[in-house]
Design a protein that fits this description.
The protein is an alpha+beta fold. It has one domain: Alpha-Beta Plaits (2-Layer Sandwich). Helices cover about 25% and strands about 35% of the residues. It contains 3 helices and 4 strands. Strands 2-3-1-4 form a 4-stranded antiparallel beta sheet.
């Protein structure tokens, strides 16, 4: 499994806009190898709100196929050179190769 975590820190009152963007169905949902997408909101502070979008793929190869997808590339090309919205404080992306997934063991009563 391969996971992409995108963390977007925004000024207070703007998390909903980010969650809407990452929580809307789109072309990515048709891609082979996509497991799921999760949008999370961290506890808000008086100075910022943090949204995390987690995208899980069956493999790194499946994610690379998404990165090379013509529709995905065209979407980025459309916005090339545009500054991020003024309310975005920071944005980071991290990738992870999952090495082990533990599932609970049922306990007999």
């Amino acid at each position: 499994m391969f996971i992409q975590l995108r963390t977007i820190v925004v000024e207070p009152g703007n998390a909903e806009q980010v969650m809407e963007r990452f929580g809307t169905s789109g072309h990515i949902d048709t891609m082979p190898g996509l497991i799921d997408r999760t949008v999370m909101l961290a506890a808000k502070t008086k100075d910022s709100e943090e949204v995390i979008a987690m995208i899980r793929w069956e493999s790194e190869e499946a994610w690379k196929n998404w990165e090379k997808d013509p529709v995905h590339i065209a979407g980025h090309r459309e916005h090339r050179g545009e500054a991020p919205p003024s309310y975005v404080i920071s944005s980071t992306v991290k990738m992870y190769n999952v090495k082990k997934v533990l599932t609970p063991t049922p306990v007999n009563s």
